[in-house]
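stage 2 :: seqdesign
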């Protein structure tokens, strides 16, 4: 809808309102107003097949209504002139257009070689026609191989080309042909804002691009008020009701013919099982169409009581059929473009239209590799009614195109100008996103426990498995593999698609190679360990590995309070002290993968010994190990327990006992916590003075006990320019697992689904 709003806003205001004409120079606008072209513009419209004629016909009618400005020559070629494809040139004659030239250019065979030979035959025949007609401009539509021959001939003969529907993105060889025609064309009429941006990014001159909308929408948006039931009965039978039938239109994918034939078989099988009256249109003339027709006959489609197989339906009637269908299925561009104008549900199969902008009425089944998947899509879509989509136009394309044609200055040189702006990606819905939950396997290697989780795109931990972390390398690797294999098997039952494995571990990690370089003392036998290779070989999935502090930062960036923040720091307060730094949205690893060892910032020259071998580090004051050490000292001196507290004999004294004692009024315990919080606060001040982040996130079990002390230290010790920084407690329950998962999900979902 955003594209339509753009069109409507820019193209519906009074006066010379079109976006293109707003951008014209004053001189050019004045020339238009004076009708600077002193003679009629001779326009040649060349049409190759039923599909492109539906887009070109509205323009041809518009040209015909203005004989004072235009002379129209019509050239017909391609499948229009073949009986097997309905001899569709007759509908051009029925529309009362004089066909100046008929060119038989199709070499039969319906394979790749025949397509090439057809282009060659057209190139041989077209020069004589163009020499005779001598058009000022040729209008070429779309992305068919016939259109490529037209554009090539016109360009080489210095005839200006107006290309309709350039800049769009789809699948198969059509993309390459469409963009090749764009490079040959001198003027461009596009249908959507994204297509316009694509043309700009392809170096086309913005002044020669018109965002008009699709010409067929001029007819579509006024089509629903006609007597549609008689049309439905004529094509599907007297007993068919509105919204209780299917229209199927599927073409071969020329870059993968074998797979597209198999997909067509699966589609027909699914339609037979679905048991609804179905109008099946024959495929176009691309390579592979002959095999698709054989499949239809093998399945008995032409004689099946639920099917009506036809070579061609006149466009006016076809509009009514898709407007009142319960569903349309196949891979035709009509499904993802025109049908949206009616809100009819569409199932788009395979990759032929991948990248097309679509309304919410379109459900993609890009991996249409099973009958069940297509059948599920039919059950999801059939009979629904979606809002009408005007992505491709608002019904006023032809007046804009005619005005655009009138503005062409034939005295201008043909040479094109170039520029290089960016282009936005288009993301659309895929059936696998509905039928499966895209997920990651996340592994957290802690000092005590080994945890594996199935984590969804939204950060939901679907299932979690926990075991004690073994003490030896062999046992630990074996357990990791076993837990991951079991979790991957369980993911299938939970309808989760595992995209990869992310591992969070203590120590210094080379994430590029997936190797733990040096571990902390909490995890033994864990130096120079290649984690990526055994997991990837066993699970046949990509594997990412990083330090647990970095993973916590990545978890905050994707799922937590760091989302959308350009610069922030995460500090983990657990058994040890770790952290991660996000700078300009990217994680900082450092030259030797040692960045963000924040627990080993020194805050006192004569402080307690640290596990790293130094002394006075934050970790030596504020970690769970440090608090446990101080708790044991107090307990050994009978200074820990206060009224209301008890420690069972078989339970080791730890940090939580110290915190409990402080809450119950133990002054010494309170003093220890205050010292620990102050050490952490001084570390944060050093971070603020070094990195100047906009946010500091305290994570881990001790974070909530330190937050107020840390803020006090910042107020007392930090420079005034950084005292306003936000310091917050993380609201993530499992930052290590979520961070491990985010490595997988961020990388594997960067491409369009």
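stage 2 :: out
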């Amino acid at each position: 809808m955003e594209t339509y709003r753009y069109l409507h806003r820019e193209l519906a205001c009074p006066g010379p309102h079109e976006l293109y004409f707003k951008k014209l120079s004053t001189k050019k606008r004045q020339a238009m107003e004076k009708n600077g072209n002193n003679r009629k513009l001779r326009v040649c419209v060349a049409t190759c097949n039923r599909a492109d004629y539906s887009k070109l016909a509205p323009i041809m009618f518009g040209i015909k209504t203005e004989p004072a400005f235009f002379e129209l020559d019509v050239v017909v070629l391609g499948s229009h002139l073949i009986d097997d494809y309905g001899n569709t040139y007759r509908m051009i004659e029925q529309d009362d257009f004089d066909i100046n030239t008929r060119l038989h250019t199709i070499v039969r065979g319906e394979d790749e070689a025949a397509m090439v030979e057809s282009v060659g035959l057209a190139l041989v025949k077209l020069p004589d026609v163009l020499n005779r007609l001598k058009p000022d401009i040729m209008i070429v539509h779309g992305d068919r191989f016939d259109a490529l021959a037209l554009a090539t001939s016109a360009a080489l003969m210095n005839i200006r080309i107006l290309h309709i529907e350039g800049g769009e993105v789809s699948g198969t060889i059509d993309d390459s042909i469409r963009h090749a025609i764009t490079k040959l064309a001198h003027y461009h009429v596009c249908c959507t804002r994204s297509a316009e941006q694509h043309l700009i990014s392809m170096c086309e001159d913005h002044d020669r691009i018109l965002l008009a909308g699709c010409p067929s929408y001029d007819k579509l948006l006024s089509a629903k008020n006609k007597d549609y039931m008689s049309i439905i009965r004529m094509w599907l039978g007297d007993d068919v009701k509105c919204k209780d039938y299917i229209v199927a239109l599927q073409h071969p994918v020329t870059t993968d013919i074998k797979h597209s034939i198999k997909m067509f078989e699966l589609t027909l099988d699914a339609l037979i099982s679905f048991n609804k009256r179905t109008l099946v249109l024959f495929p176009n003339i691309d390579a592979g169409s002959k095999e698709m027709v054989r499949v239809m006959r093998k399945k008995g489609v032409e004689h099946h009581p639920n099917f009506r197989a036809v070579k061609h339906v006149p466009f006016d009637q076809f509009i009514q059929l898709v407007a009142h269908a319960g569903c349309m299925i196949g891979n035709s561009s009509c499904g993802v473009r025109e049908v949206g104008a009616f809100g009819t549900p569409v199932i788009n199969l395979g990759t032929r239209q991948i990248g097309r902008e679509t309304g919410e009425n379109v459900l993609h089944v890009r991996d249409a590799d099973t009958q069940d998947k297509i059948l599920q899509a039919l059950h999801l879509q059939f009979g629904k009614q979606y809002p009408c989509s005007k992505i491709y136009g608002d019904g006023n394309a032809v007046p804009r195109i005619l005005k655009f044609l009138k503005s062409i200055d034939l005295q201008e040189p043909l040479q094109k100008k170039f520029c290089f702006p960016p282009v936005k990606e288009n993301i659309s819905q895929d059936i696998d996103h509905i039928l499966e939950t895209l997920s990651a396997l996340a592994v957290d290697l802690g000092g005590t426990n080994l945890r594996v989780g199935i984590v969804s795109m939204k950060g939901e931990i679907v299932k979690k498995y926990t075991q004690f972390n073994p003490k030896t390398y062999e046992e630990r690797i074996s357990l990791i593999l076993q837990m991951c294999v079991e979790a991957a098997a369980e993911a299938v039952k939970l309808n989760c698609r595992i995209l990869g494995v992310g591992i969070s571990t203590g120590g210094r990690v080379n994430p590029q190679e997936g190797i733990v370089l040096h571990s902390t003392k909490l995890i033994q036998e864990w130096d120079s360990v290649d984690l990526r290779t055994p997991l990837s070989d066993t699970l046949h999935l990509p594997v990412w590995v990083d330090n647990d502090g970095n993973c916590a930062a990545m978890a905050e960036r994707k799922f937590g309070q760091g989302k959308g923040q350009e610069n922030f720091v995460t500090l983990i307060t657990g058994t040890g002290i770790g952290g991660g730094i996000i700078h300009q949205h990217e994680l900082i690893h450092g030259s030797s993968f040692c960045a963000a060892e924040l627990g080993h910032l020194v805050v006192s020259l004569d402080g307690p010994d640290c596990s790293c071998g130094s002394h006075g580090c934050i970790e030596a004051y504020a970690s769970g190990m440090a608090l446990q050490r101080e708790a044991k000292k107090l307990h050994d001196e009978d200074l820990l327990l206060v009224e209301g507290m008890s420690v069972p004999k078989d339970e080791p004294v730890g940090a939580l006992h110290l915190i409990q004692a402080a809450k119950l009024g133990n002054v010494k315990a309170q003093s220890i916590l205050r010292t620990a919080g102050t050490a952490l606060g001084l570390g944060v001040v050093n971070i603020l003075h070094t990195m100047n982040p906009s946010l500091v996130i305290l994570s881990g079990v001790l974070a909530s006990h330190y937050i107020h002390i840390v803020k006090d230290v910042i107020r007392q010790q930090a420079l005034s320019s950084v005292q306003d920084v936000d310091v917050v407690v993380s609201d993530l329950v499992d930052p290590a697992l979520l961070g491990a998962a985010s490595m997988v999900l961020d990388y594997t979902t960067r491409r369009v689904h």
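stage 3 :: structure notes
- The radius of gyration is 34 Å.
- DSSP finds 27 helices and 26 strands in the chain.
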